[in-house]
């Protein structure tokens, strides 16, 4: 009996690795600490009422962003562990299995659990405000999206301590990731964790498309929308049409692994390449999902801090539309080297290169927005400016990869690794950092310290180049990705040392940023006006942080840069002036939280093939949905007195 | 702000040094055969075009920052919102660049389908040789069907001779990459593929798997030894005379997941030749029911 | 009910399900979701078609499919789509009873379809040894057709819940929207079936 | 736009002609497709091409006659959503078949 339990535990828990014991201990300790702090300050009820059951997009956005920062930390630690292992030849810091798990979780977490929630978080924070709406179209669904993402991320991270992490790369190619070559729960975690988060993301896409299409303030025609809203609309569109593909790919591989089907196996006629095909049909649009919102943010930031209209507004919009359509017809460039005919490779080579054209249009429009401007080098602006040359390098190396015969030489080498970090960090991460500094006052009511912000910017940005530029060369020297070690005598060592130094430098830059967050929360300048930067769009028309209902009166829009126009006309006061009408708001609800956690248990059951857990949990999920369907009283009115009280508390009424 | 752009220029300069100077260790930029050479030419051509784009963008970037980055710079115009001519310009130039890239890309793609053209000026046509390359977890098997030889983790080829590589996989996918001789192709179970390599000079060219295949992946490197024609024939003779035969038992052992050193066999089980396709299928199957009579129609 | 019918008498008539902001939003949202569903099914179709010939020595499509069976399944669904449409038609006339009757007929037809499909699957598995794990072709077949079947089953549960709500509350802006949306879903599943009918069954007879 | 809605109203006043026509058309198209296949009198290419075209018409019938794709103030967006869905779907199916042609 005891032996049975022991055997079970040693399978269940990941044993025998000091690093993981360390993680176990720190997880337990931080859990205990959280529970203690919450109980000590009697915050349980507050947590439940204000956060866990909230369906206010602004708060959901903040939760997304917190999750994203935590995941950036986790993914960053993974990165530093990897770098430590491959700095010198023949190191023994991590063994092969461990290294494989780490790059898999690093890539997966960074893209799906860091970049995605960061973006969706920013959309939640800014889009309803920018279009002058009170919330998103489906607030309840929005909360469900968040909690699905959250439990997906939790499930994925759990693999580290229970059962073992996935180890087949974030791309999870079959047959390597199939049941035969990769038995055990690790890969199941990947499949189910991504599935949960992916469904949440799909719902977000639907939600934001409906929000932006239908809930804009009166007068805000499509071509008067702020650029971030435009980018969110187009990103949502890509999400809606790309994520179902991920859903299917994951489901098919799950069915292969759990129920013995033969989609991607080698045996019984399965087609391993079909996985690569489906994965990239989703995967390529995915990289534009994570870059387009960043483009939108750069447009906002560059225009705001050049104190000038965005140059070529229409071209900016149409180039994004074109990018979104093209993003669905280029996926094969990720497997040029899988023996395709020359015709296939030619077509996909050219379609890929074509994306350079609309992207170039955007780059030049940003440059010409700066032109004739009055450039103010705020921290947010520095991130936006640094984006231009850094992303340029990444984009151009992308075009080099798009040349199929040349890709035969670059594919899966560090040249590729360098490319995608250039665009993911130089584009997406820089964009998110710009957004963080830009919208921080809108989220929390105080600005981040500029000096610390600039220090962290310079450290991070310079280290980023020290880290990733040499990677292009090690790639050309023949170093392939996903090698847990390399032999001596190939001349790869010096550059790898430089790369690792850069990686740690980025860590330091990030620490300064975190310190800035802490410092500013305590001492940072409070933003009383709601408009700290001389903003141009509607989110700056309301208070910082925005009140629950966003705007006491829905603003009327006449031009693009609506708020700037109001300021020029002197009509800004109208948004918060009496007389008020009661405001219709949806009720908070615990159901999304509960439903998501039920799905977590269903997922956990599937990971270990414990159907006694999976089936009841899934059934309970359906039950919650049925309850929801029968729920008719899910909204309330904020009475006029309360609006008056809130508005005068913000000092906007007298 | 200037620091940022200067740095980018520095980086560019560094890149140029790498291109012109010590490229011996930079395998991709050191092509040693016609296949790699074609790819190298494309790389250089694309690099030149990219450098032009970088220069163009950086010049504008530096100009606007320097000109409009000061507190009281003249020419501030908050209403400046577009310029049809300029916008047309930066749509058309990229289109031209893309065309300049696309044409040689397509040409090269079709060119790579056949054997490389003879490299030396004599232009004499040489009979290609064929090597069947199979990746197994985690080693490379090289089979010379005509010579009847099998080697592990290294292969010998005659110089200036097109070598047809037939790629197969048992187990996970890998990718066959010898950067100095040719860009890679995947090895895939159930999908035999071909590629060509050719070496201009005798030498020892390092290759490795470029596609992750599990625990032993990092150790999946191999050597391609190019020899003068006569030496190649001598090597074949020597192997035939002095090396052991690959038995079925030994072969099955090789298929087990493990890393291995270099090995040489004077022959391999003939059954592998005959029931080649069926045999690979068999080895790849995880259950035996579908086994040998799997339709290998493709 | 009468209060709803007479509202906004000065404005031109607007179907009830579009009469509130919430209703309009949800209907648009559902259309967008259907766009996503199209892509979801397209991946299953692509996979099925790619592995169609990979039978690994097991049963082939020609051996399995039975014209009579899949034609009956097709007619059941086509007619149910029609009766569901009549439900929406009654909705526009604010006739709760009419809606409920047509929706129940739709449900029965749907149940008939599911019954036939389950029978078909069981027959394949028991008589021909054709299971998901037999070959790539069969994996593709069962998962594509099964996903559609799962959608139909879900639709049945959903429609049942809406019939109950309608019986309890009559035709209001909210129930109208729900009836309309479940109708969209049902018609959509018919569209998917048409493609299954074409790309799986009919094509399976040819190739 | 308002006029459209009025029309909708009238269309729903009496006998559901639109639905009946939709049903008849869809049954007819189904039977034609079946006949093309079971008559075995056409080339494979022609058979496949024609049944695919018939299926697309069927889908349009459902969308227009039963699903009211073409009504409401957001019909542009509805049509774009469905249209982009079909664009992606076609890309996925045709692209995959082309790429994986070696194994068909
Ligand atoms: C934010 C994410 C992001 C972005 C924006 C991009 C953008 C691009 N990517 Fe990248 N890519 C990734 C993330 C991203 N990529 C990831 C994660 C992978 C690897 C995944 C893995 O295998 O793990 C990858 C892999 C990848 C490959 C596969 C390589 C291989 O596996 O061998 C290719 C090949 O074509 C490619 C190409 C491109 C191109 C052409 C662009 C273009 O969109 C770039 C366009 C921009 C410019 C070109 C610069 C500005 C333009 C001008 C100034 C105009 C003038 C220029 C010209 C005319 C050239 N990418
Ligand atoms: C948005 C996505 C994203 C981001 C931000 C990053 C960020 C980083 N990545 Fe990542 N990476 C990927 C996406 C991303 N990566 C993907 C998709 C892969 C492919 C995976 C696969 O092959 O399957 C990959 C693979 C990958 C590899 C290749 C591994 C291999 O193939 O063997 C390497 C190697 O150096 C690497 C390094 C880094 C580094 C150094 C950072 C740094 O930028 C990280 C910097 C951040 C921090 C460091 C913050 C954390 C702070 C602390 C931890 C505080 C403590 C600090 C100190 C002690 C100094 N990444
Ligand atoms: Cu008319 Cu339904
Ligand atoms: Cu891509």
UniProtKB/TrEMBL annotation, chain A:
The chain crosses the membrane at residues 20-41, 62-82, 102-127, 139-162, 189-213, 233-255, 287-305, 317-336, 348-368, 380-404, 416-440, 452-473, 493-518, 593-613. Its EC number is 1.10.3.-. It is found in: Cell membrane. It catalyses: 2 a quinol + O2 = 2 a quinone + 2 H2O; 4 Fe(II)-[cytochrome c] + O2 + 8 H(+)(in) = 4 Fe(III)-[cytochrome c] + 2 H2O + 4 H(+)(out). Pfam families: COX1. CDD domains: Ubiquinol_Oxidase_I (cd01662). Its cofactor is ferriheme a; Cu cation. The keyword Glycoprotein does not apply. It is an enzyme of class 1 (oxidoreductase). Keywords: Cell membrane, Copper, Electron transport, Heme, Hydrogen ion transport, Ion transport, Iron, Membrane, Metal-binding, Oxidoreductase, Respiratory chain, Translocase, Transmembrane, Transmembrane helix, Transport. It is a multi-pass membrane protein. Heme A3. Binds a copper B center. Residues 42-558 form the Cytochrome oxidase subunit I profile domain. It comes from the Bacteria. InterPro entries: Cyt_c_oxase-like_su1_dom, Cyt_c_oxase-like_su1_sf, Cyt_C_Oxase_1, Cyt_c_Oxase_su1_BS, QoxB. Its main location: membrane. Belongs to the heme-copper respiratory oxidase family. This is Quinol oxidase subunit 1. The lineage of its organism: Bacteria, Bacillati, Bacillota, Bacilli, Bacillales.
TrEMBL record, chain B:
Keywords: Cell membrane, Electron transport, Membrane, Oxidoreductase, Respiratory chain, Signal, Transmembrane, Transmembrane helix, Transport. GO terms for biological process: ATP synthesis coupled electron transport. It catalyses: 2 a quinol + O2 = 2 a quinone + 2 H2O. GO terms for cellular component: plasma membrane. GO terms for molecular function: copper ion binding; cytochrome bo3 ubiquinol oxidase activity; cytochrome-c oxidase activity; oxidoreductase activity, acting on diphenols and related substances as donors, oxygen as acceptor. InterPro entries: CcO_II, CcO_II-like_C, Cupredoxin, CuRO_UO_II, Cyt_c_oxidase_su2_TM_dom, Cyt_c_oxidase_su2_TM_sf, Cyt_o_ubiquinol_oxidase_su2, QoxA. It is a multi-pass membrane protein. The chain crosses the membrane at residues 43-66, 87-106. Residues 20-116 form the Cytochrome oxidase subunit II transmembrane region profile domain. It comes from the Bacteria. It is found in: Cell membrane. Residues 126-238 form the Cytochrome oxidase subunit II copper A binding domain. Its EC number is 1.10.3.-. PANTHER family: CYTOCHROME BO(3) UBIQUINOL OXIDASE SUBUNIT 2, CYTOCHROME C OXIDASE, SUBUNIT II. Catalyzes quinol oxidation with the concomitant reduction of oxygen to water. Subunit II transfers the electrons from a quinol to the binuclear center of the catalytic subunit I. Belongs to the cytochrome c oxidase subunit 2 family. This is Quinol oxidase subunit 2. It comes from Scopulibacillus darangshiensis.
UniProtKB/TrEMBL annotation, chain C:
One of its GO terms (biological process) is aerobic electron transport chain. Its main location: membrane. The chain crosses the membrane at residues 28-50, 70-87, 99-116, 136-158, 179-202. It is a multi-pass membrane protein. Its EC number is 1.10.3.-. Pfam families: COX3 (PF00510). It catalyses: 2 a quinol + O2 = 2 a quinone + 2 H2O. Residues 28-205 form the Heme-copper oxidase subunit III family profile domain. PANTHER family: CYTOCHROME BO(3) UBIQUINOL OXIDASE SUBUNIT 3 (PTHR11403:SF2), CYTOCHROME C OXIDASE SUBUNIT III (PTHR11403). Belongs to the cytochrome c oxidase subunit 3 family. This is Quinol oxidase subunit 3. It comes from Scopulibacillus darangshiensis. The lineage of its organism: Bacteria, Bacillati, Bacillota, Bacilli, Bacillales.
TrEMBL record, chain D:
Its EC number is 1.10.3.-. Belongs to the cytochrome c oxidase bacterial subunit 4 family. InterPro entries: Cyt_c_oxidase_su4_prok, Cytochrome_c_oxidase_bac_sub4, QoxD. The keyword Transmembrane helix applies. The keyword Transmembrane helix applies. This is Quinol oxidase subunit 4. GO terms for biological process: aerobic electron transport chain; ATP synthesis coupled electron transport; electron transport coupled proton transport. Catalyzes quinol oxidation with the concomitant reduction of oxygen to water. Pfam families: COX4_pro. The chain crosses the membrane at residues 20-42, 48-67, 79-101. GO terms for molecular function: cytochrome bo3 ubiquinol oxidase activity; oxidoreductase activity, acting on diphenols and related substances as donors, oxygen as acceptor; proton transmembrane transporter activity. It catalyses: 2 a quinol + O2 = 2 a quinone + 2 H2O. It is a multi-pass membrane protein. It is found in: Cell membrane. NCBIfam families: QoxD. It comes from the Bacteria. Signal peptide: none annotated.
């Amino acid at each position: 009996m005891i032996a049975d339990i022991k055997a079970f535990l040693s399978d269940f828990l990941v044993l025998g690795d000091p690093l993981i014991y360390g993680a176990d201990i720190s997880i337990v300790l931080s859990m205990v600490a959280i529970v203690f702090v919450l109980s000590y300050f009697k915050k349980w009820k507050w947590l439940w009422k204000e956060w866990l059951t909230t369906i206010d997009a602004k708060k959901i956005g903040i939760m997304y962003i917190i999750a994203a920062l935590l995941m950036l930390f986790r993914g960053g630690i993974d990165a530093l562990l990897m770098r430590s292992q491959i700095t010198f030849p023949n190191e023994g810091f991590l063994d092969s299995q461990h290294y494989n798990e780490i790059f898999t979780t690093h890539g997966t977490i960074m893209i799906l659990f860091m970049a995605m929630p960061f973006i969706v978080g920013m959309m939640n924070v800014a889009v309803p405000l920018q279009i002058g709406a009170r919330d998103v179209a489906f607030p309840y669904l929005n909360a469900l999206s968040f909690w699905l993402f959250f439990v997906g991320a939790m499930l994925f991270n759990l693999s580290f301590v229970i059962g073992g992490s996935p180890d087949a790369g974030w791309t999870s190619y079959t047959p390597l990731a199939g049941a035969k070559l990769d038995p055990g729960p690790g890969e199941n975690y990947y499949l189910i964790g991504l599935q949960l988060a992916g469904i949440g993301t799909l719902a977000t896409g639907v939600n934001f498309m409906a929000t932006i299409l239908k809930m804009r303030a009166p007068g805000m025609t499509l071509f008067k929308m702020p650029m971030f809203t435009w980018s969110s609309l187009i990103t949502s569109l890509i999400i809606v049409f790309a994520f179902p593909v991920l859903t299917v790919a994951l489901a098919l591989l799950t069915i292969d692994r759990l129920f013995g089907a033969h989609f991607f196996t080698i045996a019984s006629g399965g087609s391993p390449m079909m996985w690569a095909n489906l994965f990239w049909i989703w995967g390529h649009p995915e990289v534009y999902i994570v870059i387009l919102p960043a483009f939108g943010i750069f447009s906002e930031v560059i225009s705001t801090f050049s104190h000038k209209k965005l140059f070529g507004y229409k071209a900016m919009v149409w180039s994004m539309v074109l990018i979104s359509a093209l993003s669905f017809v280029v996926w094969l460039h990720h497997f040029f080297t899988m023996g395709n005919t020359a015709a296939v490779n030619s077509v996909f080579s050219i379609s890929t290169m074509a994306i350079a054209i609309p992207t170039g249009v955007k780059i030049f429009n940003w440059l010409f927005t700066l032109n004739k401007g009055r450039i103010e080098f705020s921290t947010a602006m520095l991130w936006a400016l640094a984006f231009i040359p850094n992303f340029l390098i990444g984009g151009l190396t992308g075009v080099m990869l798009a040349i199929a015969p040349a890709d035969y030489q670059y594919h899966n080498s560090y040249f590729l690794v360098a490319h995608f970090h250039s665009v993911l960090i130089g584009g997406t991460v820089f964009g998110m950092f710009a957004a963080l500094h830009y919208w921080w006052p809108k989220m929390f009511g105080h600005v981040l310290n500029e000096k610390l912000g600039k220090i962290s910017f310079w450290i991070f940005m310079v280290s980023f180049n020290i880290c990733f530029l040499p990677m292009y060369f090690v790639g050309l020297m023949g170093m392939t990705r996903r090698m847990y070690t390399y032999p001596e005598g190939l001349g790869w060592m010096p550059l790898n040392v430089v790369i690792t130094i850069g990686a740690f430098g980025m860590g330091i830059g990030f620490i300064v940023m975190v310190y800035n967050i802490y410092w500013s929360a305590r001492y940072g300048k409070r933003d009383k006006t709601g408009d700290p930067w001389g903003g141009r769009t509607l989110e700056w028309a309301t208070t910082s942080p925005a009140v629950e209902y966003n705007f006491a009166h829905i603003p009327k829009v006449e031009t693009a840069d609506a708020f700037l126009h109001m300021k020029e006309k002197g009509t800004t006061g109208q948004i918060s002036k009496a007389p008020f009408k009661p405001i219709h708001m949806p009720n908070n609800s615990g159901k999304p939280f509960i439903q998501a956690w039920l799905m977590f248990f269903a997922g956990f059951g599937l990971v270990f093939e414990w159907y006694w857990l999976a089936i009841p949990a899934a059934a309970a999920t359906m039950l919650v949905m049925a309850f929801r369907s029968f729920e008719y009283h899910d909204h309330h009115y904020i009475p006029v007195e309360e609006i008056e009280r809130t508005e005068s508390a913000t000092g906007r009424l007298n | 702000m200037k620091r940022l752009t200067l740095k980018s220029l520095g980086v560019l300069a560094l890149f140029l040094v790498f291109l012109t100077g010590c490229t011996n260790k930079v395998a991709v930029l050191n092509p040693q055969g016609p296949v790699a050479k074609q790819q190298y030419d494309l790389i250089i051509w694309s690099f030149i075009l990219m450098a032009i784009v970088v220069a163009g963008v950086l010049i504008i970037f530096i100009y606007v920052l320097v000109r409009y980055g000061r507190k009281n710079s003249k020419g501030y115009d908050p209403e400046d919102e577009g310029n049809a001519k300029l916008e047309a310009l930066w749509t058309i130039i990229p289109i031209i660049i893309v065309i300049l890239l696309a044409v040689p890309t397509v040409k090269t793609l079709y060119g790579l389908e056949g054997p490389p053209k003879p490299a030396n000026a004599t232009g004499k046509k040489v009979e290609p040789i064929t090597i069947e390359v199979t990746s197994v977890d985690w080693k490379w098997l090289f089979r010379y069907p005509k010579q009847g030889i099998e080697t592990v983790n290294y292969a010998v080829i005659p110089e200036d001779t097109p070598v047809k590589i037939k790629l197969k996989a048992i187990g996970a996918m890998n990718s066959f990459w010898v950067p100095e001789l040719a860009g890679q192709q995947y090895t895939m179970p159930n999908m035999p593929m071909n590629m060509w390599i050719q070496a201009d000079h005798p030498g020892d060219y390092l290759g490795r798997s470029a596609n992750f295949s599990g625990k032993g992946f990092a150790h999946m490197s191999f050597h391609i030894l190019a020899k003068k024609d006569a030496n190649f024939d001598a090597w074949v003779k020597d192997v035939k005379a002095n090396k052991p035969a690959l038995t079925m038992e030994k072969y099955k052992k090789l298929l087990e997941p493990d890393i291995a050193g270099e090995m040489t066999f004077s022959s391999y089980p003939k059954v592998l030749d005959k029931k080649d396709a069926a045999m690979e299928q068999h080895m790849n199957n995880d259950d035996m029911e579908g086994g040998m009579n799997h339709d290998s129609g493709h | 009910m009468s209060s709803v019918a007479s509202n906004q008498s000065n404005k031109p008539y607007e179907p009830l399900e579009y009469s509130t902001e919430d209703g309009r939003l949800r209907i648009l949202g559902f259309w967008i979701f259907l766009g996503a569903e199209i892509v979801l099914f397209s991946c299953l179709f692509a996979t099925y078609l790619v592995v169609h010939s990979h039978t690994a020595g097991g049963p082939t499509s020609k051996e399995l499919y039975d014209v009579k069976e899949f034609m009956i399944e097709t007619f059941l669904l086509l007619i149910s789509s029609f009766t569901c449409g009549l439900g929406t038609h009654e909705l526009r006339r604010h006739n709760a009873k009419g809606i409920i009757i047509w929706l129940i007929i739709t449900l029965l037809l749907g149940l008939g379809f599911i019954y036939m499909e389950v029978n078909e699957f069981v027959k394949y598995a028991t008589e021909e040894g054709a299971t998901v794990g037999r070959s790539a072709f069969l994996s593709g077949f069962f998962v594509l057709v099964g996903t559609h079947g799962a959608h139909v089953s879900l639709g049945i549960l959903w429609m049942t819940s809406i019939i109950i709500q309608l019986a309890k509350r009559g035709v209001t802006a909210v129930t109208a929207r729900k009836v309309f949306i479940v109708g969209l879903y049902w018609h959509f599943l018919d569209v998917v079936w048409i493609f299954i009918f074409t790309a799986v069954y009919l094509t399976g007879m040819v190739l | 736009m308002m006029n459209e809605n009025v029309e909708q109203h009238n269309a729903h006043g009496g006998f559901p002609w639109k639905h009946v026509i939709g049903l008849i058309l869809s049954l007819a198209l189904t039977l034609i497709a079946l006949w093309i296949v079971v008559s075995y009198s056409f080339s494979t290419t022609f058979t496949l091409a024609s049944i695919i075209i018939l299926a697309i018409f069927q889908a349009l019938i459902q969308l227009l006659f039963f699903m009211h794709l073409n009504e409401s103030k957001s019909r542009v967006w509805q049509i774009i959503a469905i249209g982009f869905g079909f664009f992606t779907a076609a890309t996925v199916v045709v692209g995959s078949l082309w790429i994986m042609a070696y194994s068909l």
